[in-house]
Amino acid sequence: MTAPTAHSVSPAPALAGSPELLRSVFRQHAAGVAVITAVDAGRPVGFTATSLNSVSADPPLLSFSIGTGSSSWPAIAGSEHVGVHILAEQQRELAGLFARSGADRFGAGTRWRPGPEGVPVLDGVLAWLVCRVVARVPAGEHRVVIAEAVAGHSTGDVRADGRPLLYHQGRFNALRD
Q: Residue limits of the Flavin reductase like domain (predicted)?
């Protein structure tokens, strides 16, 4: 019996940690696309997020991150509740709208309504939650927001038009079979 040996193919050399390395690595990571909404001085605000994570089922907690330089940060910093919307693969334009700086995100083309706790709820998404913010954790130039789900709806749809939008290689993408 022979002892296991290392593979003969050498791995690529390790690079020093840097913002460029992190961005390069995470371009390889497919992430779901969500829109986070809140109310700021009576006005709806929102942004596209690819950092959404489930944290705990009991209590029902999730997290997302936001840059403190973002135009939406003041609203998120002061909001007790936020909306979390899971986008469908055919909602690339909506994702792009909420990702664009200076865009009229809640203009005539955006279908939405006030939801529980007055949080803007987008129509036509795969699923949405209204969450109570429980923590804002400093992380570099960002904050990791931890929030508890208090209300929501999921289509539970498994048809092709019920597929999630993904972000990969710097673009919005769809799942492939």
A: 26-174
